[in-house]
Design a protein that fits this description.
By secondary structure, the protein is of the alpha+beta class. It has 25 helices and 20 strands. The strands form three sheets. Strands 1, 2, 3, 4, 5, 6 and 7 form a seven-stranded antiparallel β-sheet that branches. The chain crosses the membrane at residues 12-31, 37-58, 65-83, 89-107, 236-254, 260-280, 570-589, 595-614.
Length: 633
């Protein structure tokens, strides 16, 4: 056991010692020609390089697995038997050197995980009851603790700001490079960097329960989750390796050419085939993690690449989820009346009233004094402005008080309602003064993003919403949505998702990760634009930490590229085997040259997969990698 551990821990030095001995043998052959030196150098090189290969083959056999190392080990023994010490030395060196390069390049494909784990906070400034602070290990923090984070520091917990304000860079969580202004009462994530200001934060999640820790865990698990292509290749390799052994034996039996049989063993190593799919999977998922996109495994990548129908929730997904004043029609010259409207609406907690107050406060220079109001159920509110009643509500409220709309005013009202706006009418001194249209506004990036999804091969875009049909239809038409269904409960949305699946479509559902959890779980791929909520992380197959359509386009494009890259690697591996067999038949390929081509093919598929690390959608502005952002802070 000690010998085995020693060999494994010194595999890389052994690789380079073997290279030195091979070079020594060639130098002696070409120049000094000292007797026995060449063969001795090559024998020693073969023995030391074969040690880790044979030990791995034995370990695999104990587990009843026929590994690539078994093929190489038998080939080396056969080369010794026929006195081909040069071949055995070169074959073992190339195999170890190929493994060394694989380790280095695969480590780079897992760079997203490494950069995330290196960025995890390790200490925190704990605020004691007497107001003093002390540095503690993050593992010692508990929920409810209060921590202090100054400019340049790292947030050690998920929590809520209880004092202070500043700009926070959440790139390690969301992939978004733009710092966000955080105020008292705002939430913050562990791992975020405070670029300016000082924040006092009350912990709501600590340790392994923080969003940052869950992201690291999810990405690690995802990179180890195999795609259907990988599972197929694993099963294929279980039968392929012993088949190569049988073929080599048959070649020797019929040809009596031991060298040819050994060469068949070398050429039969399925290295590129075995590694081609997982390295693409690791690189693709790593790219997603770097850009704030959590993809839960290679099987999800494969499923997302096949999606042809995307179903969207409306509120909070296609729209911002925040009601704002989208339009205002004015039928009076008395602009000061709007100050009265603001005061009336301030006495209500209705979402429409809050949207109007926010809009008017942002546009009015002077605020009127507070007023008493009367709420009329199902109609609206009545206030008192400059010795006259001020009516703020629906058309029925105005009609009740003998305020009649003209034909032009009715046309304006119906036009705004047809556009999906909820309307609030203002009546004063027997006339209609204003119509305010309030709507949940569409995210500004959505139209271009949906067009990009179409270009990426998504054939059908569907919107399912609990909102009314008129509003839903107006939003759908403005965005080019193919199909819309409104007035739905969460269970109704699940029914539609199943209906599309029964029609043979590959369905992805995009929602906020909270109300739409059943649909996220039912769809072929559930995509949560939930900003890292616990429900989103647990339920969805893909979590878009930025909660943006730019990230959605990136995720779909990345899945398709990763799936295509996997197929490219499998093709490269198969063509390599075909090339080697043809070369062997025609006498152009021998043991050492075959092993060289074999190892080169492994590196080709790795380097091909590494192209995914830098993938970004066409025309997209890629967020600066989190590690670079930390370096510039």
């Amino acid at each position: 056991m000690k010998f085995q551990r020693f060999i494994y821990s010194h595999t890389n030095p052994i690789t380079f010692w073997s290279a030195g001995l091979i070079i020594l043998g060639f130098l002696n052959t070409w120049f000094t020609k000292v007797p026995y030196v060449t063969d001795t150098a090559w024998i020693i090189a073969s023995v030391i390089a074969a040690a880790p290969i044979v030990l791995r083959a034995i370990s695999a056999l104990k587990a009843k697995v026929f590994s690539i190392e078994l093929l190489v080990g038998i080939a080396v023994i056969g080369a010794f038997a026929i006195g081909e010490f040069e071949e055995s030395a070169i074959v073992t060196f190339l195999f170890l050197f190929g493994s060394y390069l694989e380790q280095k390049t695969l480590a780079k494909t897992r760079g997203a995980i490494q950069s995330l784990t290196e960025m995890a906070p390790t200490t925190a400034q704990l605020v004691n009851d007497d107001g003093t602070t002390e540095e503690v290990d993050v593992d010692d923090l508990e929920e409810g603790n209060v921590v202090l984070v100054k400019a340049g520091g790292q947030v050690p917990v998920d929590g809520k700001i209880v004092d202070g304000s500043g700009y926070v860079n959440e790139a390690s969580i969301t992939g978004e490079s733009r710092p966000i202004n955080k105020q008292n009462g705002d939430g913050v994530y562990s791992g975020a960097m405070v670029e300016s200001g000082t924040l006092t934060i009350e912990a709501t999640q600590v340790g392994d329960e923080t969003t940052f820790s869950k992201i690291i865990e999810l990405v690690e698990e995802a990179q180890d989750t195999k795609s259907p292509a990988e599972n197929f290749i694993d099963k294929f390799a279980q039968y392929y390796t012993p088949a190569v052994l049988v073929i080599a034996i048959l070649v020797y039996v019929f040809s009596q050419d031991l060298r040819l049989a050994i060469t068949v063993l070398v050429l039969g190593c399925p290295g590129a085939l075995v590694i081609g799919a997982p390295v693409s999977n690791v690189a693709g998922i790593g790219n997603g993690a770097k850009n704030g996109i959590l993809i839960k495994g290679g099987d999800v990548v494969e499923s997302l690449a096949k999606v042809d129908t995307i179903v969207f929730d409306k509120t909070g997904t296609l729209t911002t989820g925040k009601m704002t004043v989208a339009d205002m029609k004015q039928y009076t010259d008395d602009q000061s009346l709007l100050a009265g409207v603001a005061q009336v609406e301030k006495t209500s907690d209705h979402p429409l009233a809050q949207a109007i107050v926010a809009h008017l406060d942002a546009h009015l220079k002077d605020n009127a004094s507070a007023m008493e109001t009367e709420t009329i159920k199902g109609r609206g509110m009545v206030g008192h402005w400059n010795d006259n009643d001020l009516y703020v509500g629906n058309a029925a409220l105005l009609k009740d008080h003998d305020i009649t709309l003209t034909d032009d005013q009715l046309a304006d009202l119906h036009s705004m309602q047809d556009e999906g706006q909820s309307t609030v009418l203002v009546g004063y001194q027997g006339q209609l003064a204003f119509i305010l249209g309030v709507a949940d506004t569409v995210r500004p990036e959505v139209p271009a993003a949906l067009a990009a999804l179409k270009r990426q091969g998504i054939k059908h875009l569907v919107m399912l919403t609990g909102d009314n049909q008129a509003t839903a239809q107006a939003v759908a038409e403005s965005l080019g949505i193919d199909e819309v269904h409104a007035d739905l409960l969460p269970a109704d949305k699940v029914t539609f998702v199943k209906k599309f699946q029964d029609m043979g479509r590959n369905v992805a559902f995009v929602g906020d990760g909270i109300n739409d959890s059943p649909s996220l779980a039912t769809a072929s791929v559930g995509i949560a634009m939930g900003g890292g909520t616990d429900v989103a992380i647990e339920t969805a197959d893909v979590v878009l930490m930025q909660s943006s359509f730019t990230a959605l386009n990136h995720a779909v494009g990345l899945a398709k590229k990763t799936s295509a890259n996997t197929k490219q690697n499998i093709t490269i591996a198969i063509l390599t085997v075909a090339f080697l067999l043809i070369g062997l038949v025609y006498g152009y390929i021998y043991m050492a040259s075959g092993m060289f081509v074999h190892e080169a093919s492994i590196l080709v598929v790795i380097f091909n997969a590494m192209r995914l690390i830098g993938y970004k959608p066409r025309g997209a502005k890629q967020a600066k990698p989190a590690t670079q952002q930390l370096a510039t802070n």
